[in-house]
Amino acid sequence: MLSKYDALLKGVREFDNYWSDVGMSDAVALLDEFTGEEWAALGILLFERPLRWQISCAETLGEAGDPERGFNLLLLLMQVRDSEVTLAALDSINALASDGLNITGKATQLRSAIGKARATAGPAVSRMLNALEEKLPPA
Prior knowledge:
By secondary structure, the chain is mainly alpha-helical. Helix content is 69%, strand content 0%.
């Protein structure tokens, strides 16, 4: 499944209607069939792929059937030194937290990423960052 997932994400282009209409759902379905070994391999693959792939990966991890594994990989993606990748990871973490995933154990790491993301955030992104921050325990 990992090779199919990888190939699907390699085909994603910016402003791709197919991706948002069909491809993302297909990618999430593939994630949901991953073995433990494939999840581990994906964690390594994250840093070998281009930014568009990483952003698409972050988008799908927020909808994966295994939210804990998705969350752990999103934390890795937040380490990529690109604001779009970080924002995609934070957005997916916000979705996971909205669905009930406990993210409080990583509050310090998340607050740091939120603070850095605010520097380039417009109004819509700021609202998402505020919503995520509200899900964290008081500092």
